[in-house]
What we know:
single chain; golgi apparatus; Sulfotransferase; glycoprotein; Sulfotransferase family protein
Amino acid sequence: MSFLKTAHDRLRRRQTWRYYHFEDPPSTPRFKRFPLKQAMIADPVKVIYMPIAKNACSSLKTLMAKLGGLTEQRPGEDIHRLLDTETTDLLFLHRSEKDIMERLFDPLWMRFVVLRHPVDRLVSVYVEKFVKNRMVKEAGITIDPVMLRSLGVWDLTAADYERGITFRAFANDILRENPARLDPHWRPQSLQLKAIPFTHVYTTEHLAVLKSDLDVHVGQRIDLPHKNRARYASSDTARDCVADVLPSDLDDAQTLSPDAFLDDDLRQRLSVHFAQDILLYDLASRHLEQSQSGRITDALEN
């Protein structure tokens, strides 16, 4: 019986770990469910921001907290942990539906989101979570489900974390899973844009345009620090594809461009899988280059 109980416990844990840990019950009100519950409101300056993981969200959450009047944040304090543990009126999660709806359709409000090329985003999260910080305990909530599935084991050992998984294994896991149930760090961005009528859209390469638009909207110059900057080299054409290289052999991972992690097969499969994200990113990039403003026009909406 003890063997059966152990096997049952392992199966239950494996099923629990299969998807990201915080899936909200279907009965939860829409503004209290992911991703809408993490949207931020800065009442004093009439701005709503929809965070998307790995899209400069640390910098932008910090900015929104400041614009919204949050004074509890101490120097060096993690903004994600602060917002997750404190009850403030900065998040949709803690606001009434009436409050939110009024702000979603008020023409005086700026409502924005920042997009990133999906392959660049995947490489960034792989390097951060599965290479650089794979031995850090706090990373487990994000990486463990992928590692369990990829390695085909019930439990992860210290040796498993030391070995890690390749970028190809990470990508293959994403391609096998239901996109709507993926971890927010690599869930398609297009699935996180519903229900908010955005007035402005930006990309991670056009944060200077966002700053300029915010300066005008707020009526004063704002400080937009860019935390967790990408650390890619400008060129690594001499380096062979590292898609099948284990993390323990990727000492230079933070200096490699996204192209170094892709062969033709991976590039084609990921491009198909994230086609909607790529389309939105390309449209936003062209619009920003042409207009030097993130304001959504009729042409961009179409």
